[in-house]
TrEMBL record:
Residues 17-171 form the DUF83 domain. It holds the Pfam family Cas_Cas4. It comes from the Bacteria. This is DUF83 domain-containing protein. Gene3D superfamilies: 3.90.320.10.
Length: 173
């Protein structure tokens, strides 16, 4: 499935995979991230994820699209993303769909994606079809609306925030 070539410079607000992942994980996290609040730099979990990414699948090369960095793409345009999580998440699949959409807009015929979970030795396939494309476009629209909001979205229940680098901001005294 491919659409017309798209110039990323035409986007009113370029969105990367992190934007989409944060939207699906916690809209408040996306809102804060878009305003420059970046506590990930001090997070041990983020550092651990970077180590997993750097030491797994070492023969691959990142694909830098400017607004997004894809872990790698294999022959046949299969997008691959590596996660340090021990559990698959809808946010991970949404991120891969977003990457598929970005590639398609650049005129590349994408076949789908795979999320790799090396810690549990599992993969999750992410299909790319008309439904997935509509989901990716909807995620972009939701992300832009969240970023444009003048007030931050409500906090999630605290139990959902375990391990989040934004925990202190949202729940600190």
């Amino acid at each position: 499935m491919t659409g017309p070539a798209h110039d990323p410079a035409d986007d009113p607000m370029p969105l990367g995979g992190v934007h989409i992942k944060y939207l699906h994980h916690c809209p408040r996290q996306l809102w804060l991230y878009s305003r420059g609040y970046r506590p990930e730099q001090r997070s041990d979990l983020v550092a651990f994820g970077e180590v997993i990414d750097d030491t797994t699948f070492t023969r691959r090369r990142d694909i830098d699209l400017g607004e997004a960095k894809i872990d790698w793409v294999t022959t046949g345009a299969i997008v691959h993303e590596t996660k340090s999580s021990r559990a698959p998440s809808p946010a991970h699949a949404a991120q891969v769909r977003h990457y598929c959409l970005l590639l398609e807009r650049r005129g590349i015929t994408v076949r789908g994606g795979t999320v790799h979970y090396p810690l549990i030795r599992r993969t999750t396939d992410v299909p790319w079809d008309a439904t997935a494309r509509a989901q990716a476009e909807d995620s972009e629209a939701q992300a832009r609306a969240t970023i444009a909001a003048t007030e931050p979205p409500a906090r999630l229940k605290r139990a959902h925030c375990r391990g989040c680098s934004y925990l202190d901001y949202c729940w600190g005294d």
